[in-house]
Design goal:
Blueprint (H helix, E strand, L loop, with lengths): L1 H5 L14 H10 L14 H10 L14 H10 L14 H10 L14 H10 L14 H10 L14 H10 L9 H27 L3
Helix pairs in contact: 2-3, 3-4, 4-5, 5-6, 6-7, 7-8, 8-9
Length: 213
């Protein structure tokens, strides 16, 4: 049991007779994905819940009979990535919203018909690059601005027609590496604005340094 607690994946090599409820519980509490090596007859609602608390991936190894709307919602609340393993028929607006609040990466697993403006906005606020999974009709300048403010690199996911000077500037402010995704026609503007801001910051520091104590 001590070995399994230290390295949960050793459960895969343990003889079946050694995979007791106690040993399996210790394994999934350390690594939820170890649920895949738990004998089916030991996969109780309680043990599966412990596994999902540790890893959203564990939902992939929960028996279908135990995958209810309630257990799946609990799983995504613990780990938004678990939405990947939720049966399509069980995905609700509430569940999908919980998932993207945990991680915007989960947006790719949200059914198209459930990708609302509110949900997509929540997604890009936690993971800017989720903007690539936003339906075209919902990609607005405001949403793209939120995305690049969270992560400037997300600029590469912004459609060219929505790459305004303001969005490009915000992206490069957040991460200078985003400059490679700035359209050439806006490069001079972005450079000029960044230089202007830098000069203003320098002047402000100098003024502060000259002010009497």
């Amino acid at each position: 049991m001590a070995a399994v607690q230290t390295v949960p994946r050793m459960l895969a090599e343990a003889p079946l007779q050694s995979r007791t409820a106690e040993v399996c519980l210790a394994a999934v509490q350390k690594d939820g994905a170890a649920l895949q090596w738990v004998p089916e007859e030991l996969k109780t609602p309680e043990l599966c819940a412990e596994a999902m608390k540790c890893s959203g991936e564990a939902l992939n190894f929960v028996p279908d009979a135990l995958k209810t709307a309630e257990t799946c919602l609990a799983a995504v609340r613990w780990n938004g990535w678990a939405l990947n393993y939720v049966p399509e028929a069980l995905k609700t607006p509430e569940m999908c919203l919980e998932a993207v609040r945990q991680t915007g990466r989960a947006l790719r697993y949200v059914p198209e018909e459930l990708r609302t403006e509110e949900l997509c906005l929540e997604a890009v606020r936690t993971y800017g690059e989720a903007v690539r999974d936003v339906p075209a009709k919902l990609k607005t300048a405001d949403l793209c601005m939120e995305a690049v403010r969270q992560n400037g690199i997300a600029l590469w996911c912004v459609p060219d027609e929505l790459k305004t000077p303001e969005i490009c500037l915000a992206a490069v402010r957040q991460n200078v590496a985003a400059f490679v995704s700035v359209p050439w026609s806006m490069e001079d503007y972005v450079k000029a604005m960044l230089n202007k801001e830098k000069e203003a910051q320098t002047a402000s520091r100098q003024t502060a340094g000259e002010a009497p104590a």
